Amino acid sequence: MEIVSSEKSLHLRVRDRQRILTAIPLSRPMGEDHVFVKWDLENSRRLNNLRIKNTPSPIRRDYNWPGKFAPYAHQRETAEFLTLNNRSFCFSEQGTGKTAAAIWAADYLMNIGDVTRVLIVCPVSVMQSAWADDLFSLVMHRTTAIAHGTRKKREKVLAEDYDFVIINYDGLHTVETHLYNKFDLIIADECNFVKTATTRRWKAFRRLVTPGTKLWLMTGTPAAQSPLDAYGIAKLVNPNLVPRYFGAWRDMVMIRTSPWQWMPKKNATMLVNIALQPAIRFTKSECLDLPPVTYQTRTVNLTPTQWHCYEEIKNEKFMSVEGGQGVSAVHAAAAMTKLLQVSCGAVYSDSGDVVEVDCKNRLREVVDIVNATVNKVVVFVPFRHAITILADRLKSEKISTEVVNGEVSAQKRADIFHAFQTTDDPRVLVIQPQSAAHGITLTAADTIVWFGPIASVETWLQANERINRPPQKNKMTIIKICGSPIEKRVYKALESKESQHRMLTRIYEEERDDSGY
């Protein structure tokens, strides 16, 4: 089959043209096997529903792709796919720019009146950094708001007529009645959050999806841990492709090997692929037009315990300098280090004792990132006890993990790095940055996660280069986890390559000024 597009029509050469003439009444036959079809979105969708490959969307012809940067070829193709499929999946890997593609697709549909309002559901950590920031950069002409915080704050946002509203998954049930029938397109990022159809989270999400709701689910790792994980998201997009009940799906894709253990059947991958349709996917290795490194910021809220300790340390450290004048770099470093330690979940007292501080939000975020990443991951953690906390959590999730810090001998480090580069395990390295900032190749990973920032620009730059070197073949992602004001300031200073001495004193002064001392 061949499709040729012109300004207003599609010229198709097909063997069975009658099905096109039947599906599109205003189509016009030409000769024995040619059909002319008016090229608009409705007809393109009809052709796509007939499974005619390479059906072009009129977004290709009509859209001007606004924003601060131009789309790459794979982003244009993704946007075309989304506009043609009212309910679909985007399984492109993390770092391939699927957020931007979805924004452009939604904006185009709003331009032509096919969509009026969009609800974006995503984890808290990417509400601002991935979605709000990209919406501002790409479609500044649209109104956007984040529905987060207290119930009253969420309700106030939802009472307004914003074009795009961003909300987190666990916030859905708190304002569920205020969401009904207000959005005709729902975009769900990291849709594995609703993979389990028995949870309150899934049920609240499902109640928002009416027969007329357009729904785009996005994740880079569909059914990554088990074929069972496909059931919940398939049930949302295309329920006819999976059994009515979960037990029947389990029997289709799993086999019981003991009273308590199930294993995937040989054909499980094929069945999952059938269930999770229609879908589009690009891997980093396929996106040769992508920049070599993509930076992301994940905002992860401190727990109440962390905030309490954070404020106590600020009060102690800032009030200890009389009048707030004459701050030395040594004093500034001590104050900043304590606040960064709290942010990472383990504070060292003046006597050397370690006080653990609940950092469950940050730990969960790292686990989610690792689970959403296809290849290996390096996590840089600036404080030794925080390394232990994180490594223990990853191991409890059955993620093969090795630790490299100052206590690990040179030979042991070499063995760990060799295994990381040449074998399946470990999948994750948790590293104190100074222990692997120079001369080490870790290209088996294409993702770096900063559990928290460090004060050394040199170490920051060098550590980020561990995966960005030959023989790296994949595009790379560097993720900065950020939850406290001090971390935001340190990351900003690192990215501007500010000197360490100036960084310490300036950040200290800014924190002090914000506190009113």
- How many domains, in number, for the residues? 3
Low-pLDDT residue spans: 321-329
- Biggest sheet statistics: 7 strands, parallel
Question: Structural class of the helix and strand makeup?
Answer: alpha/beta
- Rounded to the nearest angstrom, the radius of gyration is 26 Å
The CATH architecture of the largest domain would be 3-Layer(aba) Sandwich
Number of helices: 19
Average pLDDT for all residues = 89
Write down the overall geometry. Answer: globular
CATH homology superfamily of the largest domain: Tandem AAA-ATPase domain
- Estimate the strand proportion: 15-25%
Could you characterize the architecture of this molecule?
This protein has 517 residues and is an alpha/beta fold. The protein folds into 3 domains: 2-49, no CATH class; 59-289, 3-Layer(aba) Sandwich (Rossmann fold), CATH 3.40.50; 294-300 and 356-515, Rossmann fold. The protein contains 19 helices and 21 strands. It has helices at 18-23, 41-49, 59-62, 73-84, 98-111, 127-138, 151-159, 200-208, 230-237, 246-253, 268-275, 304-319, 329-344, 360-371, 384-396, 410-422, 457-464, 485-495, 500-515, and strands at 2-5, 9-13, 28-30, 34-38, 87-90, 118-122, 144-147, 164-168, 185-189, 214-218, 254-258, 261-264, 279-280, 293-299, 346-348, 354-356, 376-380, 401-404, 428-431, 445-450, 476-482. The strands form 5 sheets. It has a 7-stranded parallel β-sheet with strand order 7-8-6-9-10-5-13, with helices on both faces. It has a 6-stranded parallel β-sheet with strand order 14-21-20-17-19-18, with helices on both faces. A 4-stranded antiparallel β-sheet has the order 1-2-4-3, with no helix packed on it. Helix 4 (73-84) packs across helix 5 (98-111), helix 12 runs antiparallel to helix 13 and helix 13 crosses helix 19 (500-515). It is globular. The chain starts with a strand and ends with a helix. Mean pLDDT is 89; it is low at 321-329.
